[in-house]
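step=encode ok
step=design start
structure_in=
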């Protein structure tokens, strides 16, 4: 893909890192052509089918795109079938919007639709902050402008405990004096290269240590590995959930080559974000070996998956009321108003 390139190894880079194809760091140019924001229609359907009728369903969903410095939410609507007795919105400590639902009548199927229109702007980062040694991104260098809540993303969390084998990955990537931009590019490439995407290898309850031992997993697992490695170095990293563009784009992220469907675009996706003073949060996606760009739609972020699952809840029903789950996601570009077709 066009955003992948070979970089000259930085001082202190290991021999193994030299052989990995790292994603190109999107730097801000002094004189560059501005890229128009992408306008997307987003549809997320979660459908549960029950073997026997259940009497009650409680759920909380993180399926609403959130406003960010790079993303605007033009509209959002949640539709639940059967019609819920209660449907309310809630904003959590980190600013994520979630939807609480209660279906209080017998049913054998539950469909939760999320419809949204969002614009996603280009992300580029200034050279100077991304060229600083990573040690200058430690909390003692943040200054007074960054909120104290960011410290939550430095410490261990329920799904990302301290003392895991991710310390070895961290030590390989975050070598003394290395530029933070190089570190993030290499971490993205390391996880993408050394771990195998395998949807059958893990479940939502798989532990970080199990993933590190098996070196197989999905986007949720790879994001946890990345967050653990960043935190092991003492930096702030958060787990991000969202979606990927599902329609192939005519041009690549840098406007040089076609881009096909990305890994994880058929359902909810996950990546990680690292705090870099002087530019803010920088998002990387190890699953697709990429810095996050206009193909990504953000829904929520937290310390780990447990803070922002797409949908969790409690079902009340008879014994044997097993269920099957189907999830589908569409993130489709919408032509700007007034544009002519074709």
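sequence_out=
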């Amino acid at each position: 893909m066009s955003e992948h390139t070979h970089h000259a190894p930085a001082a202190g880079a290991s021999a193994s890192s030299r052989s990995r194809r790292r994603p190109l760091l999107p730097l801000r140019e002094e004189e560059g052509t501005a890229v128009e924001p992408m306008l997307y229609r987003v549809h997320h359907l979660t459908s549960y089918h029950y073997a026997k009728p259940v009497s009650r369903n409680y759920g909380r969903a993180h399926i609403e795109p959130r406003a960010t410095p790079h993303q605007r939410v033009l509209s959002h609507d949640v539709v639940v079938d059967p019609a819920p007795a209660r449907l309310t919105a809630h904003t959590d400590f980190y600013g994520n919007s979630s939807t609480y639902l209660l279906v209080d009548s017998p049913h054998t199927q539950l469909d939760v639709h999320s419809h949204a229109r969002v614009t996603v702007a280009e992300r580029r980062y200034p050279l100077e902050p991304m060229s600083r040694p990573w040690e200058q991104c430690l909390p003692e260098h943040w200054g007074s402008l960054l909120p104290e809540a960011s410290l939550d993303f430095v410490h261990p969390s329920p799904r990302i405990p301290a003392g895991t084998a991710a310390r070895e990955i961290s030590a390989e990537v975050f070598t003394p004096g290395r530029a933070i931009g190089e570190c993030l590019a290499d971490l993205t490439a390391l996880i993408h290269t050394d771990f195998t995407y395998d949807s059958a290898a893990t479940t939502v309850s798989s532990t970080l240590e199990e993933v590190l031992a098996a070196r197989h997993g999905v986007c949720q697992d790879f994001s946890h590995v990345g967050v653990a490695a960043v935190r092991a170095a003492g930096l702030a990293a958060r787990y991000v959930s969202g979606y990927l563009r599902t329609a192939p784009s005519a041009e690549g992220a840098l406007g040089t080559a076609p881009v096909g469907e990305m890994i994880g675009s058929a359902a909810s996706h996950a990546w990680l974000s690292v705090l870099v003073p002087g530019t803010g949060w920088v998002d990387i996606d190890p699953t697709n070996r990429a810095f996050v760009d206009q193909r990504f739609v953000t829904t929520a972020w937290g310390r780990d998956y447990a803070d922002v699952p797409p949908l969790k809840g409690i079902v009340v029903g008879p014994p044997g009321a097993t269920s099957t789950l189907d999830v589908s996601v569409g993130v489709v570009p919408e032509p700007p108003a007034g544009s002519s077709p074709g």
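step=design ok
step=annotate ok -> Confidence is low (pLDDT under 50) at residues 1-18, 250-259.
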